[in-house]
Write a structure and sequence with these properties.
Blueprint: E1 2-4, H1 7-20, H2 26-31, E2 60-66, E3 80-82, E4 85-89, E5 94-99, E6 105-110, E7 115-122, E8 125-130, E9 134-139, E10 145-150, E11 155-158, E12 165-170, E13 174-179, E14 185-190, E15 197-199, E16 205-207, E17 210-214, E18 219-224, E19 230-235, E20 256-258, E21 261-265, E22 271-275, E23 281-285, E24 293-295, E25 299-303, E26 309-313, E27 319-323, E28 335-337, E29 340-344, E30 349-354, E31 360-365, E32 376-378, E33 381-385, E34 390-395
Length: 397
């Protein structure tokens, strides 16, 4: 992720970086702000992996292929899986559909614009966002363009399609709801951004007839999907600290929903549970996360700012376990897979953790590059896209 700020703040941030850190390189700024934003964890090397023993899980690789790396280094382009196909965006701004069973290419389209957000879709369309503010919708069956709509700025994230609407988040902190029939803008909503924010955004999450959006000022907002009316607004945390760096409070990580409760976390802030109907905060923990979280029937799994993995009781927020053997490995949001959660890391490994106690149960290296895209779990299969564009399908034992 990069940082989004005026030129004056850019100079201040870079100067501060050099004051606080010896040897803060451009690569670190691009790939891992959480490695240099906090004094206590700056430039920590990834924790070395230890042998898991002969009893560990041994996932089987079913197939793999590559679509090539995307052009924008801070973008977290996600695979979209539907109807037996996986849709991917990669090198040369190509968008492709592959058969999920064997990776056979169904169609391929090369766009002229730089892809910065997506891939997502539903209801027979596939959509991507671009650096110059376009949302481009393709027919999911053959890749032919359906429509394109110009928005206010770079498109950072797209929701799934629900009720004939897809929601785009742009870099100017604006939400745009688009009719998938013709791409017309049904409504817009925005909030002012603080002087310094992380460049990136969590994916708008559609739940029923509402869309949940995390903003850069630490607010979680529920809008009506149909007309954009604000239903409620909850504070994950207030920006605090003496410097603009310390006051970063972005909700850029994944938002979770389970049984009428929304779970969210923010940078430099807290993890909270919010009542979906009223917006009332049910519980809060001083547990910040830039990456985000996932929830199942009984637990919320959070990646802390130093890549500690936490399991919290979903009803109370109490700590059930904490795993510290993957510190500073720049973990992805966990994905729930049976009795385990699965995370990717900066060296191309997937890790399986027991939901019961957080113990490391398995490991498999799928790429010689970082994994920033959240893995996808369907049944006993895990699908993972690495930053170098490699896509791998694993069978979990």
């Amino acid at each position: 992720m990069l940082y989004n700020y005026p030129a004056k703040i850019l100079v201040l941030a870079v100067f501060t970086c050099f004051l606080l850190l010896s040897g803060c390189s451009g690569g670190d700024l691009l790939s891992a702000p959480k490695r240099w934003i906090g004094i206590e964890e700056d430039l920590q090397a990834p924790t070395k992996l230890t042998d898991l023993g002969s009893e560990s899980l041994r996932p089987k690789k079913l197939w793999s292929d590559s679509i090539g790396a995307t052009e924008i280094v801070y973008s977290k382009i996600q695979p979209y899986i539907a109807d037996g196909l996986v849709y991917l965006a990669g090198a040369d701004n190509r968008v492709e559909a592959w058969q999920l069973i064997d990776g056979k290419r169904v169609w391929s389209v090369k766009l002229q614009e730089v892809i910065s957000g997506g891939v997502n879709g539903g209801e027979q369309i596939l959509a991507v966002g671009t650096e110059n503010g376009l949302v481009i919708a393709l027919d999911s069956s053959d890749g032919k363009e359906r429509w394109r709509t110009q928005l206010s700025s770079e498109v950072l994230a797209l929701s799934k399609v629900r009720h004939g609407v897809i929601v785009a988040r742009t870099s100017d902190s604006t939400i745009h709801a688009l009719d998938i029939g013709d791409g017309s803008i049904a409504w817009r909503a925005s909030r002012s951004s603080p002087p310094l924010t992380l460049l990136g955004a969590s994916q708008p999450k559609v739940v029923g007839s509402a869309v949940l959006v995390g903003f850069d000022d630490g607010k979680l907002v529920a809008f009506s999907l149909l007309d954009g009316e604000e239903r409620w607004r909850a504070t994950v945390s207030f920006p605090s600290g003496r410097s603009e760096l310390e006051r970063i409070a972005d909700i850029d990580g994944d938002i979770a929903y389970q049984d009428d409760v929304v779970y969210a976390a923010n940078f430099n802030g807290r993890t909270v549970a919010v009542d979906m109907l009223t917006g009332r905060v049910k519980w809060a923990r001083d547990l910040p996360s830039h990456t985000g979280l996932v929830a199942d029937e009984s637990r919320v799994y959070v990646i802390g700012t130093n890549d500690s993995v936490w399991a919290l009781d979903r009803m109370t927020g109490a700590t059930l376990w904490r795993q510290d053997k993957l510190l500073y490995r720049l973990l992805t949001v966990p994905v729930s897979a049976g009795d385990y959660i699965v995370v990717g890391d900066t060296e191309g490994y997937l890790h399986w953790l027991s939901k019961k106690d957080g113990s490391l149960a398995g490991r498999h290296r799928v790429a010689r590059d970082a994994i920033d895209s959240v893995p996808v779990a369907i049944g006993q299969r895990i699908f993972v896209l690495a930053d170098n564009g490699s896509f791998t399908v694993l069978q979990q034992p």
